[in-house]
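Q: C-alpha cells for this one, please.
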Amino acid sequence: MAQDHEVQVRVGSWPPFMMIDGEVKGIAIDYLESIFKRHGIRYRYVLGSEVSWKEALEALKKQQLVDMVPTAMITAERQEYMLFSDEYLFLPWVIFTRTDSPFIGGINDLKGKTVSVPEGYVMQGLLMEQYPAIKLKVIDGDNAVSRCLQALAVGEVDAYIGNLAVGSYLIQNKGYANIKVASPSPFGSHDNAMGIRNDWPELVGIINKTLATFTTEEKAAIWNRWLSVRYEHGLKKTDLLKWGLMAGTSVGMILLVVLLWNKKLVGEISVRKEVENRLRESEEKFKRLSQAAFEGILIAKDGFILEVNESLSRMFGYLPDEMVGKRSADFVAPENREKVVANIRNGSDGPYEIDCEKKDGTVFPAEIHARTFEYQGQQVRVAAVRDISSRKQAEQEQQRLLAEMAKLATTDSLTGIRNRKAFFQRLEEEIDRCKRYGHHLSLAMLDLDRFKAVNDRYGHPAGDVVLQTFSARISASIRSNDIFGRIGGEEFAILLPETSLKSAATLIEKLRQMIEVSDISLPDGQKVDITVSSGVSTSEGAGFDIDQIIKVADQRLYQAKNSGRNRVVASD
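A: Here is the predicted structure, written as C-alpha cells:
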C-alpha cells in the first residue's frame, strides 16, 4: 500500500461469482472491490479473453501479468507458487444430467460414460486420478463451465460435475430446461479462496483481516444480490420427487375416472360385480393405463382388493392373483395396519406415508394417495401406492450434505478446530453477551514463531503436521468454555469468557511454556522445536467493541514478536 502497487486481478466467466458483461461483476467481485476500496488499493482487471485460466496459473508462478485471482480452490500443488486468503465461498459439488437420462444415483453410475470438465480445473484432476473409468470431454478457454453445461444440454456428454451455485445459475440464465441435479458427488464442498502471488503475504493479511470484519448482513446482501431469485425455484431433489409423485398420481386418477365411467354402463348389479365385470371387459385398456401409471394402483371394496396393476404386484413381490381377495391392510407393516384400517373406515383422502411389507418380509416406506367414491349406495376405494425409498434416501443424503456443509463452513479443514469465520462469529456473540449482562472476556492472539523456516527446512507436509499437533495440544490444555480457532496460516486465537486480563495472561503463559518444552515428532522421525508469541486484550472498560479488542490483541502480538518472540504481552 505504501508503494501504491496496482494489483493485476485476472477475472473470467464463472457466474454468479465472476461475470463480464460490459462490466466485471459477481459475488467474488463484490467481496474483492469492497476490500480494495476500504483500503484504497489500486487494481486493474485482466480479462479471461486476454489470459486463460491455465495461463493465469502460469503467470502467478512467474509473478508476471497476473498478481491474484478472486476465486481458487486450495490444493497442495497450488500452494507451491500461490498464497491463499481464508476460504470465503462454500458450496457442494453435484452431478448434473439431462432430464431424459437413465437414473444416476452417484458417481459410480457414470462409469463408461462421458463427463464434461473445464481444462485446468480441480475437477479434471480428481476424476482422472480417482475415477479413470469415466471418459472426460475437456473444454478449454473462457466460459468453459457454461460450455460444459451446453455440451450436456445438446447430448454431447452424459453428465457434468460442478459447483451447485454456478450450475444452478447458468441453468436458469441460459434456459437449459432439460438439465437437472441428479445426485451429490463424493467430492464434498467446492470451497474457494482468493489466490495471490506468493511474494505478497502483506496483501493476504489485508484481505483476511478485512474478510473477518464483514458482518452477517453484509455477506447476505452480497449473496442475495446475485442468488435470491435463482434459488427460490427448482433443482431441489425433494421438490423434483414431489413433482414426480404428483404427476404419477394424476395418471392413477385418470385410471380411476375411466373405471368409474365404465361402471356406469353396467347397470343394476352390485358394486363388486360391476367393477369386476367391467374390468374384464376393458382388460386391455386397464393394462395400458396401469402400465402408464407412475406408481402401483389397487381397487378395493370394504377393504378387500378387487384388482391391482403390474406395478403394484412387482413392488410387493407378488403375482397379481396372490393379492386379489386379500385385505389391503395385510400388505402393510403390522404397526401401521390400524392406521390404514382407520383411513379406509373414515374415507380419508390422504395422502399419507406408511411402511409396507413385501412378500419376502422386507419393509419399505410408501406414500398412499387414496379416494373413496360412492355409487348407488356402494363405495369403492382406489389407491395409488408409491415406493418412496429413493426419496427418503435423498432426503437423508440432503440432511447429511447440509450437516457436512455446516461443518465445512465452521471448521478449519487442516486442524479440525474453528476456522476464522466461526471464531469471529463466536467473538461477536460473546461481546454482545458481555454488553448485555455486564460480564467481561479476554482475547489472546497467538502466532507460531519462525514457522516459515519450518516449511522451508522440512517442507509443507511437515508444516501441516506442526500446525495439527500444536492445535491438538492447545485444544487439550484449554478450559472447556474457552474457544480456540485458527485465524489463518500459523496465526491462532483463544477467546476466554468470564476471564480478566490478569487471569488470561496467566493461562496463556502456561500454554506458552507447555509449547516451548514439548517438541513435535515428524513422520520421518525428526524432531521440531517450536515456540509461540501471544498478545492478550480484554473487554474490561467502557466503550469496547469487536474491532477494538482485536486491534489491541494484534498490537500486543506484534509487540511480543518484535521483543524477541516466545513471550506473552498483556499490556502496552
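A few notes: Residues 228-272 have pLDDT under 50 and may be disordered. The radius of gyration is 32 Å.
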